[in-house]
Amino acid sequence: MLENCQRHHMLLGLGALTVVTILVLIIESRYAADGNQMRRRGQQFIIENNSTTNCWKHEPYTVVKECHPCSEFELVSRSLGVCIHTHYKEVMRCKSGETVTKSCDRVALIEQRNFMKFEAFSFVLGVLSYLVSYARDRVLSRRNYMRIERQLNRVK
């Protein structure tokens, strides 16, 4: 079927698919951002019970462990209250030395990194597919050329 398509038709189709993909990504990211804002308005992150103050709200802090998934034990045993709501936790240390664990949403950076890996994989797969298709086209063109040459040699 690809042998019957002209080059400009294939490029036009590829361009249309690219535009549709970009539009879908833009629309999806807008709806995802709206959903996160609505969820954040209604959701208060729970602070671990050993925290007497919300020091991370009032003083500088350093993030000891970025937002990461709670362990299976913490989820099942409910030993850590912050894991109940979002299943993710973040450990911070305030300037006063107090260590606080709070719930957090899955980090957008992780999602973005996974998306970029997927895009890179798709790009590499597309390039490989193009190269295989190009090589196949060259082989078929060469066979066709050789067949025509043989037919012309027989006529002489």
The helix fraction, in percent, is 55-70%
Shape field: rod-shaped
Q: Can you count the beta strands? A: 3
Alpha carbon gyration radius? 28 Å
Note the beta-strand portion.
5-15%
Our measurement of the CA-to-CA distance between the termini, rounded to an integer number of angstroms, reads: 34 Å
How many domain regions? Answer: 3
CATH class of the largest domain reads Alpha Beta
Unreliable runs: none
Largest sheet: 3 strands, antiparallel
Helix and strand element order: HHEHHEEH
Structural class: alpha+beta
**What's the pLDDT, averaged over the residues?**
80
Which fold name corresponds to the CATH topology of the largest domain? Signal recognition particle alu RNA binding heterodimer, srp9/1
CATH architecture of the largest domain: 2-Layer Sandwich
Widest beta sheet: strand line-up: 1-2-3
Please report the number of helical segments. Answer: 5
